[in-house]
Protein: Dienelactone hydrolase family protein
Amino acid sequence: MKSLFGNYLPLAMNAIEKCSFPLSFLAYEGADIDSWRSTTRAKVMELLSYQADPCPMQARVDRSYVKDGLVVEHVSYDQPFGPRTEGILLYPSERTGKLPAVVALHDHGGFKYFGKEKLVELDDEPEIMREFKQAAYEGSSWATKLAKRGYVVFVPDVFLWGSRKTDVESVPEEYVLPVLREAPGSRAYIEAYNRFAGEYESMVAKTLFLAGTTWTGIMAYEDRRAVDYLLTRPEVDGDRIGCGGLSGGGLRTIYLAGLDDRIKCAVCVGFMSTNREVVAHRIQRHTWMMHVPHLSSYLDMPDILSLSGPHAVMVQYDIDDPLWTIEGQEESDRKLKAIYEKMGAGDRYRGLFYPGPHKFDNQMQEDAFRWLDQWLFNDGNTAR
Structure:
């Protein structure tokens, strides 16, 4: 099979083969998990290279209503840069005491015009959104489904999606003419915006790298800030917070669960492989938002997620996923099992393989929800 790196692929493979992942827990010779986690997280944060300026959240509820037994709140809060983050908070209208909470992390999907809307059941959804949900989620709005099980669920937009997307009026006209020619909000406008945003990714990455920071670092910061917001809510039990998401949401899960001890249970869907397999066979399939210079010198992709250990982690793999080789997925599963066994927490990792392409379908959602139930509702006992 020919490589996009052409005759220089051996150079890249030689480099990745030399990566011994010295900060992996499998290489750790001590007995103190907390010490390993602290040292390794510090290195990851160093390489993410994003230190946000202090910024009061100034959160507010912009709109609230009750729909099908759920309180639905459209909320917003400030970031150190750019427009306010908008998110949707859902929780049962009838509740007793504080509830477990989940940060539902939307995907990449080549669809940046919307973010949070991909996961929530809303009135008057455009047809293009219904089509997207059918392809990625078997037609389900999984954040709404999860809230109906008794959770507080928070779905925030992340950097460059939805409320945080690039303002086309701020970009030189020559780059956004196809967008500006269409009627704002129309299907043609949304499709043109998504094409522009996809083509714009290399400019985003180059700008951030040369500025001394990373897209991944900004993403990870914003997702930790979403947890900060949850902890301001009186409905939330701060000791029972989880997270999860598909694809780009799976990437976000890796970093949020791996870097934030407040996350007690995570479900990573459709985003797990070894770096070697990505370099060799799947580099063209992936967004710039996953790239952190030099991180492979210390950790493989499964190692980053394992920083959440011994908190509970489920990874859902799609056998026919074009984003990953099956070899990379299976090797990651073996590595995560070995790490959790070494931690003495073998029951807190579960890897599940499903037939079919890149997706988070209804069966996968039900399995994920039962995992969250087990560790957030029942503290490791039998699921509800």
Summary: The chain has a mean pLDDT of 95. Strands lie at 60-67, 70-77, 85-92, 99-104, 152-156, 236-246, 263-269, 312-318, 349-354.
